[in-house]
Design a protein that fits this description.
The structure is a single chain. This protein is an alpha+beta fold and about 475 residues long. The protein has a single domain (about 45-465), classed as Creatine Kinase, Chain A, domain 2, CATH 3.30.590. Helix content is about 40%, strand content about 10%. It contains 15 helices and 11 strands. The chain has helices at about 35-50, 95-105, 130-135, 165-185, 210-215, 240-250, 250-260, 275-280, 295-310, 340-365, 375-385, 405-420, 425-435, 440-450, 455-465, and strands at about 110-120, 145, 155, 185-190, 230-235, 265, 270, 320-325, 330-335, 390-395, 400. Strand 6 (about 265) and strand 7 (about 270) form a beta hairpin. Helix 6 packs across helix 10. The two termini are about 25 Å apart. The model is unreliable at about 1-40 and about 50-90 (pLDDT under 50).
Length: about 475
């Protein structure tokens, strides 16, 4: 799942695609889910639908595709065919073996992209070492690593998998392999949303597309680069995917809050848990996904945005969730890259369980709550400012609540799908760790408060990224 530009896909055909393979899952759909779990999910959906701007009886009729319940339809029915690319380019499909496994087990595939900052081996400053790191990459991860927008960034993408333990294995291999290559190149990789230390601005990667982006949009990514995490979850087809995007909108602010990992920038505390989020919003298409009437409407919007000049291509659609340009997935992409693999795995598991839960709602014909765009923007601002350590907006009541309470509501809402995908035990453990240790932003601030030195923060981030330090 390659991603190019500042947190965006390269246009189809811009680089050679990778052959992605998956692993066999041993867990099947539990046909007898508990009444309590099902009732919890249904009640939570109704709670949100009742509170998105009007009384339930006064809400306008929702627009969009009216999909009748189809619980017998396999989630991964896309696997026999291909995902049509919006620009008419060659279609892309996951491996036939993984597609058959996903369909037979009735599970959703999952993949993660992470972007990292490159810093000096000793000092906390960013360095333009991406080409040196590429030269040192082990052969077994080269196909999964690529350039990002700045020369002080590098990106890795997992293959699609069915089991969370296989995602852990893949991401561990990528993080440790990249860390070793950086060591040999005289640098370190750091999983952080934006550069914590004072450094001179680094240059963009030499690329015709990146040059065009800089010429048209100017210096919208100051510093050393903005680093995010993108989670890909399979959906049956683009039309269903668009309806899932509509249902996702109220839930993304709290997921963003959980990823907050960039409180420091240029050597000082910005006052935000995710300063990257604020810098990223300078790009013209960044923001909450709008309410979408259909896939045709989605395509029309993308075409209109390109025609307006706000995007060079479909890869510059920087909504917080979108349809992937090359894969049969929805791509959830508003979060900072997480400092530890534990944090990343938790967010990936929650994202997949949420998409699976919402797919059930779409198939049952439940309308998506049409949350007002300004309220969503306010909730995302709150996520960037507070992370999980403060407040966010309860979309059902439109009132602020402790962010951790909303995080727990999300966990309870998707619990049946965590269980069905075999992720509940691991996700429960990882949720407890996040609760006890805090977000990446909270941990960075604790280190800075204790030592008063940004270098100590960067040292901890480097250790956490490769898994060699305390999490």
């Amino acid at each position: 799942m390659p991603c190019g530009g500042p947190l965006g896909h390269d246009p189809p055909g811009d680089r050679t695609g990778r052959d992605q393979t998956g692993q066999t899952s041993g867990r099947r759909h539990d046909q007898n889910r508990g009444d309590h779990d099902g009732q919890t999910a249904e009640n939570e959906l109704r709670r949100i639908q009742r509170g998105v701007g009007q009384r339930r009886d006064d809400r306008p009729k929702q627009h969009g595709v009216n999909l009748s319940p189809q619980r017998h339809v396999r989630f991964c029915s896309f696997s026999i065919g291909y995902w049509p690319l919006m620009d008419g380019g060659p279609p892309t499909a996951i491996s036939e073996e993984l597609a058959e496994q996903a369909e037979s087990l009735d599970l959703l595939t999952l993949g993660v992209e992470e972007e990292y900052l490159l810093v000096d081996a000793v000092e906390p400053r960013a360095v333009e070492s991406v080409e040196d790191v590429f030269d040192e990459l082990p052969d077994d991860i080269k196909a999964s690593v690529q350039h990002e927008y700045m020369r002080s960034q590098i990106e890795a993408a997992s293959p699609p998998v069915l089991e969370l333990r296989h995602l852990r294995t893949a991401m561990t291999k990528l993080r440790t392999g990249l860390a070793g290559a950086a060591d040999r190149a005289g640098a370190r990789i750091v999983a952080v949303g934006a550069g914590p230390a004072a450094s001179t601005n680094t240059r963009i990667v030499e690329s015709a597309r990146f040059r065009r982006m800089r010429e048209r949009f100017g210096d919208l990514s100051p510093g050393q680069g903005l680093n995010g995490m993108h989670v890909h979850v399979s959906v049956p087809d683009p039309e269903t995917g668009v309806q899932v995007l509509n249902h996702l909108r109220p839930w993304l602010p709290i997921l963003q809050a959980a990823t907050a990992n960039s409180p420091l920038f240029g050597g000082h505390d910005t006052g935000y848990a995710s300063w990257r989020s604020m810098l990223w919003e300078r790009w013209p298409t960044v923001g909450p996904t709008p309410y979408l009437e259909s896939y045709e409407y989605y395509q029309t919007l993308v075409s209109d945005l390109i025609a307006s000049g706000a995007m060079l291509d479909v890869g510059m659609l920087y909504w917080y969730a979108r349809l992937s340009a090359r894969y049969p997935t929805v791509e959830i992409r508003m979060g900072d890259v997480c400092p530890t693999l534990d944090d990343a795995l938790l967010l990936a598991a929650l994202a997949r369980a949420l998409v699976a839960t919402l797919l059930d709602n779409v198939r049952d014909g439940m309308p998506a709550p049409n949350v007002a765009q300004p309220l969503l923007s306010a909730a995302h601002w709150r996520a960037a400012h507070d992370g999980l350590e403060g407040l966010n907006i309860d979309m059902a009541t439109r009132e602020t609540r402790p962010a951790w309470r909303l995080m727990r509501q999300l966990f309870d809402y998707v619990r049946p799908q965590l269980d069905r995908h075999g992720d509940l035990e691991m996700a429960t453990i990882l949720m407890g760790r996040l609760r006890s240790k805090g977000t990446g932003a909270a941990r960075q601030r604790a280190i800075l408060a204790h030592n008063g030195d940004v270098s100590e923060v960067v040292d901890w981030l480097a250790d956490a990224t490769r898994g060699s330090g305390a999490s």
